[in-house]
Each structure stands twice: as C-alpha cells, then as structure tokens.
Amino acid sequence: MEHPIRFVIGLGNPDPQYEGTPHNLGRTLMEKIQREKNLNWQKEKMYDTTLSNPSFVRLNSYMNASGIAVEHLVKKTKVEPTQLLICFDDFDLTLGTLRVRKKGSGGSHNGLKSIVESLGTKEFPRLRLGIGPLPKGKDPSQFVLSPFSKKDKEIVQKMLEQGILAIETILKQGLEFAMNQYNKNNGNVN
C-alpha cells in the first residue's frame, strides 16, 4: 500500500545567482506552488517548509549536499522515505518532459545521488523534469548552471504548470495513476 506523500521537496541551489537555471527547476517549482497557493515559508537552517498538508519544501543546501538536508527532515519528522516526493531537473529527459517514478537510482544527478546515499535507500518517489538533451561536448555542470534561453523559458513554464498538475494527481490519485497519466506520450508537455 502506498504511503501518503507528506513532503514535496524541490532540489536546487539557494543562491540567487542560480535562479532561472535548469538545475534549480525543483526549487523553482516549489516556489511557484508556494506563490499560487499563497502559502508562507517556515524558515529553518537546512530547508524552508510550508505549513500545509503536504508540506512543500525548498532546500537551503547546495545540490550536491541535498541528502544531508533531506535526511535531517526525515529524522526530525519521522516520515518514511516513501512519504517524500523529490522534484528535480534531469538532462536524460528531453526539455519539457515529465516522468513520475516510485523509486530508482540517483543516475547522473548528484543531488539525487546524495539523497540515496544519505537515506540508504532508492525507495522514494520522484518527479523528473526534463531539461535535456545535454549538448554534445558541453560540460554537464556548465549546462545545468547556465540560464535557459528565451525560447526554452516558454517550454519550462508549460512544464512547471504540468508539474503542478502532476503533483496534484499524485497527491489525490496516487503514484500509479500519475505514472499512467504522465509517463504516456513520453510525458512531453510541448
């Protein structure tokens, strides 16, 4: 049986210089939800949360240390990793594509690898937000930390809207339903 999602967590870097970059999409998604639902952030050292059910969380750690903050949240609130929904950028998916997964490896994503390592499990749901493909010969870190082009920003806005709908679907109808809904047609929002 599925555990209800208690925390929806957006990965990203906290510094303003990273706003508008692919690597901050998870964090950007949480901020969009917070604004649209008119929620307030409860600020803590390692993360900010909304006082809602579920809580939306933006981490105050850098991407590669995401696991430390997520582990702190899990221990403090005594939730199971299966009660988290991790939202993050993924250059293995085409820009504008969404994927909902129940579990999986960290893949090439350092933030996700950090969470897997800190929690000691791959068993947590995730919403992957496509930012790819990685241009041939481009350094991955340079790619994910560079601002989106004007053209790509339009696709990103559509994807963020779909991301909100996907989260609502997961919360109301469960992961299986959301996977069937959003993983078909390659999950592309274009």
Strand content: 15-25%
Q: Quick one: overall form? A: globular
Query: At the first level of CATH, what is the class?
Result: Alpha Beta
Largest sheet: 7 strands, mixed
Number of strand segments? 7
Model description:
There is one protein chain. The chain is of the alpha/beta class. The chain has a single domain, classed as Rossmann fold. The protein is 37% helix and 20% strand. It contains six helices and seven strands, in the order βαβββαββαβααα. The protein has helices spanning 25-36, 66-77, 110-119, 140-144, 150-173, 175-182, and strands spanning 7-10, 41-43, 47-50, 55-59, 84-94, 98-101, 126-132. Strands 2-3-4-1-5-7-6 form a seven-stranded mixed β-sheet, with helices on both faces. A hairpin with a 4-residue loop joins β3 (47-50) and β4 (55-59). α2 packs parallel to α3 and α5 packs antiparallel against α6 (175-182). It is globular and about 45 Å long. It starts with 6 loop residues before the first strand and ends in an 8-residue tail after the last helix. 41% of the residues are buried.
